[in-house]
Design a protein that fits this description.
560 residues; seven-stranded mixed sheet; 41% helix
């Protein structure tokens, strides 16, 4: 490494043990069924994940709460059979369809009312009815005030008044919602109670499972649920440590409370407050695990993000209002994911492409299975690459380089001085600004420190090799211009290994990053042996090419 910091980050599994993982599930309505497939991928024994927490918003909150309660992917939905099967959360709840959780409005089911409003036929009928009402206003105005019948201002004022009343009625309907969350909360609590035990369900008159009770019964996984508090407009995080006395089902019901679809939800412990869907403020709540990442820097955060195919360009032609409005709303809800992810160390992002609609909860079983399988394949490909294959390949490359370097050092006379310890790191560009390098892989891998895992391009030897595309060798006392001399690097300097006597940095080019442009990464070696022997041994051109070739082959294998 160019600065002796005892560090290496990146989402590499802990060697010889399970990888501690924090799972984050994005909201997306019915699209969230893809999360079941993603969870199945995370359960792959090859990944050896030890799930320590699950966070989510809206549909993601549903999955996160079930994961925290110990549900596996096949407990939620078994794609080999599906309900009714004696397996799956719907069977646990005694439900024949997910649409039953929308409850009832008197004798009519909430899903029926929602389906009516979603129907294009009914939408057209309502539009025609509105025109008929406005036309009737003209007739009524003529009958009630014959002398003003010829005045366009009178008719316009009457129509404007009717339109205002219609707008108020529409907003009132949006406020009241088509459905209530009570039935959902009762059903969800029943699923939690099936795992926690000891007590009745709210639907049966007993208390609902609280975050404290869930933690006491199943302490291994921390849940984090995000909802929007309407009166303050802020995001509220419900969880084991934040709101231990709050019923989990009520928090999840608040998180799924989509405006217009559901009436605003109330949550115990928040008197007078009402809540809407958490996606209004944070649809991919990676940030909710900031404390957990500080307490356990080696934990991996896996964010499952729901995406959709981009809308055709012709949908945005002048005059196409509805597609433009939908795209704008989609961008408002899903577009903030990049902000939700910022600053998260050890983050693995997984995109789950879904083709179903936001409210397609009545999709056929075959479509459910397809969405789950698509989610599993997409997540499995990314997770195996980022958590198993890529770290294993590059760490092995670092091991091979270390062996080559130490062999070359042993072959050189050292005037009786010991060969010392040699370390190898790979510094990879982080982000798109070209200002930061991350120490992602290393040999040996015994010590890793988050604070020292990032190097500035300006002021570091690795950064200068990356900018200039050339090999650099330095020895103690090191050049202050490339030894983290700036005041903002004071903490990094404190974390550097003081025994280091020499440093070598080699730019690594690949098929995807050929010479002439920026390198794919920088190979960094340092040691505490004699600098003269290291210079003579490692600056050999043939050896340098061999060392670079080892990493280049690994880069080419993954298209880096």
């Amino acid at each position: 490494m160019s600065h002796g910091a005892e560090a290496s980050t990146g989402p590499a599994p802990a060697h010889g043990g399970a990888t501690r993982a924090l799972l984050v599930f994005e909201g997306g309505g019915a699209k969230g069924i893809a999360h079941v497939g993603a969870l199945a991928a995370a359960e792959d024994p090859l990944l050896a994940l030890d799930i320590r927490g699950a966070a989510g918003t809206s549909a993601g909150a549903i999955v996160a709460g079930l994961v925290a309660a110990g549900y596996g992917s096949r407990d939620i939905f078994d794609p080999q059979s599906g309900p009714p099967s004696g397996r799956g959360v719907l069977d646990t709840l005694g439900l024949s369809s997910p649409t039953e959780v929308f409850g009832r409005r008197g004798p009519v089911s909430g899903w029926f009312l929602l389906s009516v409003l979603r129907s294009r036929r009914w939408q057209s009928a309502l539009l025609l009815g509105a025109f008929a009402v406005l036309a009737g206003v003209d007739v009524a105005a003529s009958a009630l005030a014959p002398g003003a019948a010829g005045s366009p201002w009178y008719a316009a004022a009457a129509q404007l008044a009717v339109a205002g009343l219609a707008l108020y009625a529409g907003l009132l309907g949006l406020r009241l919602g088509v459905c209530r969350t009570d039935a959902f909360a009762d059903a969800y609590d029943k699923a939690l109670r099936a795992r926690v035990g000891n007590g009745g369900t709210a639907g049966g008159g007993g208390p609902r499972v609280t975050f404290r009770e869930l933690h006491d019964a199943l302490p291994g996984r921390v849940p984090k649920i995000v909802a929007t508090r309407v009166d303050t407009g802020e995001a509220v995080v419900f969880g084991t440590h934040e709101t231990p006395g709050v019923p989990v089902a009520e928090a999840v019901a608040a998180s799924v409370c989509l405006p217009g679809v559901f009436r605003p939800a109330a949550v115990s412990g928040f008197p007078g407050a009402l809540f809407y869907d958490g996606g209004l403020v944070s649809n991919l709540p990676v940030w909710t695990f900031d404390e957990e990442r500080l307490l356990d820097p080696d934990a991996v955060t896996i964010a499952f993000e729901i995406t959709a195919p981009p809308a055709p360009r012709e949908d945005f032609r002048l005059g196409r209002v509805w597609p433009w409005l939908l795209a704008t709303l989609r961008a408002a809800v899903f577009g903030a994911g990049v902000l939700d992810r910022r600053g998260a160390n050890g983050l693995v992002g997984v995109e789950l492409r879904s083709s179903v609609g936001l409210l397609d909860f009545d999709m056929p079983a075959a479509k459910v299975r397809q969405e789950i399988e698509n989610g599993r394949r997409a997540a499995s490909s990314v997770l195996l690459d980022r958590l198993v294959e890529r770290p294993r390949t590059f760490d092995r490359a670092c091991d091979a380089i270390r062996e080559l370097a130490e062999e070359a050092l042993r072959a050189r006379p050292r005037d009786g001085a010991p060969a010392g310890q040699t370390r190898v790191f790979l510094a990879v560009p982080l982000g798109t600004s070209g200002r930061v390098l991350q120490l992602a892989f290393a040999s040996p891998r015994a010590r890793r420190t988050i604070e020292a895992s990032v190097l500035p391009v300006e002021g570091s030897q690795a950064g200068q090799s990356w900018l200039g595309g050339e090999a650099l060798f330095d020895e103690a006392p090191f050049d202050t211009r490339t030894n983290l001399g700036a005041p903002e690097n004071a903490r990094r300097r404190e974390l550097t290994r003081q025994a280091v006597q020499w440093r070598l940095t080699l730019p690594i080019f690949s098929a995807a990053r050929p010479p002439g442009g920026r390198p794919a990464m920088v190979l960094c070696l340092d040691g505490d042996g004699a600098p003269a022997a290291a210079r003579a041994a490692l600056l050999d051109e043939a050896l340098a090419q061999r060392l670079a070739a080892v990493v280049s082959r690994a880069c080419d294998a993954f298209g880096v």
